[in-house]
Amino acid sequence: MTETSLNDRADKQQAAHGGTLKMTARDVDVFYGTKQAIKNVSIDVTQENVTAFIGPSGCGKSTFLRTLNRMNDTVASARVTGDITLDGKDIYGADMDVVQLRARVGMVFQKPNPFPKSIYENVAYGPRIHGLASAKPDMDAIVEKSLRRAGLWEEVKDRLTDSGTALSGGQQQRLCIARAIAVDPEVILMDEPCSALDPIATAKIEELIHELRGRYAIVIVTHNMQQAARVSQKTAFFHLGTLVEYGDTSDIFTNPRQTRTKDYITGRYG
Ligand SMILES: Nc1ncnc2c1ncn2[C@@H]1O[C@H](COP(=O)(O)OP(=O)(O)OP(=O)(O)O)[C@@H](O)[C@H]1O
């Protein structure tokens, strides 16, 4: 295929999705036992955009986020149906290596959860189990690069042997982001990453999200509509397990098409 036609194809893909398609979900249902938490959700996650999932408590944002790296597999009662792909490949397919998948689609949780180990070890652990570094200098380079990308290097470079749990909450969360980055992910899922942080630590994480945008496809669940407006380019509004509306963040917040979205963003419920 000529370079021109490859470019044409890429342009068309961009036009179709407002970005390069990274993950797709089609007709996804999630059940906990007999209770249905997600109903028929279809959405595209694009490379260049930060995608925010918003909606009232219990609407299924976290449940849906966790389908994107099969984190729901760890919940015995959870059952997922429908199709979810990463670079066109079915992530629920029999030949998908779940450990590999969770490195490619990393996750940062609501409460910072560093291992009770040194700062260095927190970052080096993943690359070690995935065999990404063959010698100490390689590992040192991965640890430094990951901490730099997470905006933490300057604060910790002289105390890499200190425990990760001794850092402030905001630093711990950036350490968890560095840990996700260390295994070279393609997508980073963030489940309310700032809800346990003060406003200054929150601002740093938001700044970091801006810096990481494009290098990684990012999906963030947030309760905070201002945060969604600040950090994302695409927003998905969930209500009672359904995806009510998905579009450009600017449209969702200024010109929503659905009454339920409008009611939520104007504070009528939530
Ligand atoms: N492990 C579980 N077992 C059973 N039900 C669950 C489980 N996790 C979530 N649920 C239920 O699934 C529904 C969706 O929950 P989920 O946590 O995904 O919503 P959410 O929008 O992320 O809520 P919040 O904003 O409060 O975190 C809720 O009714 C919840 O009670």
From TrEMBL:
CDD domains referenced in this protein's UniProt entry, alphabetically: ABC_PstB_phosphate_transporter
Keywords linked to the UniProt accession: ATP-binding, Cell membrane, Membrane, Nucleotide-binding, Phosphate transport, Translocase, Transport
A single cellular component GO annotation: plasma membrane
Single GO BP term: phosphate ion transmembrane transport
Keyword presence, Ion transport: no
Membrane topology note: Peripheral membrane protein
GO MF term (any one): ATP binding
Domain ABC transporter: 23-265
Domain of life of the native organism: Bacteria
InterPro entries listed in its UniProt record: AAA+_ATPase, ABC_transporter-like_ATP-bd, ABC_transporter-like_CS, P-loop_NTPase, PstB-like
Locations listed in the record: Cell inner membrane
Main localisation: membrane
Pfam families: ABC_tran
Transit peptide recorded as keyword: no
Function (record text): Part of the ABC transporter complex PstSACB involved in phosphate import. Responsible for energy coupling to the transport system.
Listed name of the protein: Phosphate transport system ATP-binding protein
